[in-house]
Amino acid sequence: MTSAPITLITGGSRGLGAAMALALARDGHDIVLTFREAANAADAVVAQIRALGRRVLALPLDVADTGSFPVFIRKLQSGLQAWGSDRLNGLINNAGSGAHASFADTSPAQLDAMVAVHLKGPFFLTQALLPLLADGARILNISSGLARFTLPGYSAYAAMKGAVEVLSRYQAKELAARGIRVNTLAPGAIATDFGGGAVRDNADLNQMVASFTALGRVGEADDIGGAAAALMRPGAGWITGQRIEASGGMFL
């Protein structure tokens, strides 16, 4: 009997990360998810994944703290060994936070925070996980529609997501000898608690976003969960080094 693929999702306790974890579990993956502070939320996702009959492990991780990675790796290895495995088949670099400030008002501290969580963290976490990634594994880096279209106030955040998209192409090229596929998934505006839940909770903003989206509504977390699961399936194995936007057709 073939063992189930094991996929690690950072920031998997809520929002898009939780939706991706559940979608992959429904696709037959065993899941390792990380959380920074939301232990109760992580426990709730763990319970849902177990109800689907999949194995799941939740580990604390602050992706902005690269010094914590060796301890995290050791805990991950112990968890995998308990499952009779020593390899990951998938990695989704999803954990992140937002920053809203005009270009003129963005502070060095705000930019440094965006670099740490959206670029430096995924860069060095993926590097640290290379020995644990199986040949033929899939890496999915989460970007944003804001790396393509422009809305005032997101220059620092969007610049980091643009950097992630370039990084993904280099990873796809340099890891191809091992059969590792690397792609970027770029969500549009999604109704989650990200950014204080504005897209979800502000009716005027929600309506405005829907008005310039081809499919006529704001995205939901499950839209991104399904897109991520599709890119991790065997049938998507000829896709690598690509940016796939899941925005419902924003600003076409």
Structure summary:
This protein is an alpha/beta fold and 252 residues long. It is built from eight helices and seven strands. Helix 2 links the parallel strand 2 (30-35) and strand 3.
Indicate the CATH class: Alpha Beta
Give the tally of structural domains. 1
Order of helices and strands: EHEHEHEHEHEHHHE
Q: What's the β-strand tally?
A: 7
Could you say which structural class the secondary elements and strand pairing correspond to?
alpha/beta
What does this structure look like?
The protein has 252 residues and is α/β, with parallel strands linked by helices. 42% of the residues lie in helices and 17% in strands. It has eight helices and seven strands; from the N terminus they run βαβαβαβαβαβαααβ. The protein has helices at 15-26, 39-51, 69-82, 108-129, 155-174, 198-201, 203-211, 221-231, and strands spanning 6-9, 30-35, 56-60, 88-93, 133-142, 181-187, 243-246. It has a seven-stranded parallel β-sheet, sandwiched between helices. Strand 5, helix 5 (155-174) and strand 6 form a beta-alpha-beta unit. The longest helix is centred in the middle third of the chain and has 22 residues, at 108-129. The radius of gyration is 17 Å and the shape is globular. The termini are far apart. The model has no long low-confidence stretch (mean pLDDT 95).
